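Thread title: Can someone regenerate the structure for this chain?

I was given the following input by a collaborator and told the matching structure tokens would be attached. They weren't. Posting the sequence so someone can regenerate them.
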Amino acid sequence: MELRHLRTFLAVAEELHFSRAAARMHVAQPALSRTIADLEEEMAVLLVERNSRAVALTEAGTLFLERVRQILVDTDDAVEAAQRRARGETGTLRIGFIGTLSQDLLPRLLHFYRERFPAVDLVLRELGPSQQRQEIIAGKLDCGFLGMTLSNRDAELEMVTVAEESLVAALPESHGLALRKVLRLADLRHESFYLTARSNAPIFNPWLIQLCRDAKFEPCVTQEIDRAATVLNYVAAGFGISVFPAQIAKLATTGVRFVPLSGKLQRYPYKLAWARGRETQTVKEFVKVAKHVD
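Best answer:
Regenerated them for you:
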């Protein structure tokens, strides 16, 4: 028994007329009659009573019609569900991200993605880059925003840069440089730097220190602290200053002023990563969206 047998029976049962049923199925009437006869033969049940004047369902045919309708509805639903999953329109997407992204870029990206794929469940986890890499490889995350990485190549990850940002200095409001419209990195040569812990920023901190060396000074890193928000509390209290990607300026903190850094400074890249060769269609669609959100 095939679906075509069921669809043909449904047409006959609803039309109660072989010619109209044949036209509805876009087949010749003899072929339609043969299909019904084959179905009845396979089932060993008379489903349709027909003579030269009328077509009617038998009692067995009426019962069979109820089940056929449900089978075809379920089949169509199953086909649609499979097609939507194949297009990346359903399922669950587990996303890792670094904290600095949560202020602006990530909310905008998720909003745009949600509008296009409302049936995909999103699970977000804030993790450092190293933890994200481990969990993507282990299959615990589908993709992750790593921030800066050592290299554009990774044997186990695919990566794409989804945004690049300039740097800002975070200064106490009472600092002598806080009223400047822009600063050069070298203007911070005599300051005490408070940075995010290397466990959360394993690439950013060495990169920033090298930028300072390129600006002809060795930064005085007084302390490394677990989270960016805590670093800003130290800055607000006047302990020292810090440098962040511009995203962090969205994190309004009383007592802190953010001043853009000018000069020939490399922009900070945000990279989206996923397991090489194991991306699902859902991940592929998310990557497409991420690449087109400014």
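The CA atoms of residues 169 and 259 lie 5 Å apart.
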